[in-house]
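Box 3.1. Reading complex inputs
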Amino acid sequence: MKLRVDAVTKGYPGLAVLDDVVFDVAPGEFVSVIGPSGCGKSTLFDVIAGLERPDAGRVLVDGADATGHVEHAAYMPQRDLLFPWRTVLDNTTLGLEVAGVRRREARARAQPLFAPFGLAGFEHARPDALSGGMRQRAALLRTVVQERSLLLLDEPFGALDSLTRSEMQAWLAGVWAQYGWTVLLVTHDIREAVFLSDRVVVLTPRPATVRTQVHVDLPRPRSTGIALTESEEKVHAALTG
Amino acid sequence: MTVLEVRTRRWAGRVGPALLLVLVGLAVWQLAVDVSGVRPQVLPSPLRVVEQGWAYRAALWTNTVPTLQVTAVGFAVSLAVGWAIAVTVDFVPWLRQALTPLLVASQTVPIVAIAPLLIIWFGFGLLPKVVVIALVTFFPIAIGLIEGFAATDRQATNLLRSMGASRLDQFRYVRLPGAMPSFFTALRIGITYAVTGAIFAEYVGATAGLGIFMQVQKNSFRTDLVLAAVVVTAAVSVTLFALTYLVQRVVAPWSGR
């Protein structure tokens, strides 16, 4: 699926948030959106996810207008939002159930993902039995099992401690390579953006517009090194420049 | 130690101090009555209350049953009304602004003044008592539910919307289960008022029940039996209160603590 964010502008009374934001995401690409905090990244995500309507501009999916539609994207919010009244398995099937898939079939579809997501054996546990990293993996599982064409990840690792965060980034890079998802990630962590992405879209402070895009043409699997640091510096320069 | 032993100890640790205080209070009361020689019509000793309560256990029981019935029916009506209002308000947001002041106003109605009128309007049957109980208990339940629904996380709502959930789906999957802790808190507040409400309603006009029993005994200066009925009332209230925890454990086991 090809996503095009076409001149999206959005504001609230007395506050311009997004100003003519333009960029593309190619099928199978991993793109990060980075910007100063409070620059409107989350609003941009809400527009792409179809949760908010832009004042101007469109969201195009494979060339067709998908503004205000939700079916093209699976959304993973900042907090894991696993509900305590459901088991881990039933949390991951929530999106399928809402979509009208019968519970048994939904479970059968989520179940095989538990092992690659490092959650095997926790299907029938309550979410509060999981560690922070496991909770985020369960939330990601809930997102990908919906089999939507685009994954929207809103600072998924922001609340984790730095060690767990590094582990999760390496793990995400691995499963992404394996499954070939199209991913759009919002983050304010330069290292995370460069480590994971094919391309980093750098936003200006509010009202946000695309300042520049940094291509990260590094071979995968990646490890921290000189080349990575160079890309990080490019993004950093663009952010502060 | 087994789990049961641990639980029993924890329970004893929680209830123990209160129980001790009650025992000390009773001992002081007993001693004061014995020493002063005050007449039992004025102040009976705790032992006399127990003794006479036991002697009149049949009468106490036949009067407890109608009170329990009234409480059950009244509280059921109250629950139905509370839920109906809260769910309606949750689906029709502008109603919230319109209804909340009215709900609050309903609580400023002095029940003491209204209850005799209810007897005049509806007679000595079940209806006026049910109305009194519903009136005193529906409010905490409705408010607890309304606020429980409204406290739903905005991000959780967005997550559901991104999945394509309708408003009904959102209610079913998130708002309703999310409101359970708040509902059970409200339920506990409501149920403690329910028994007292029933007794008050009977006081105003009834043919049987703990309320009417107390009034009759008071008129014949049987202070000991009035207090025995008070003990029964308290026991019933505490039992119902404890029952809400049991219900919560069954309905929403994840919401405890």
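In summary: Chain A has two domains: 3-72+148-240, 78-146.
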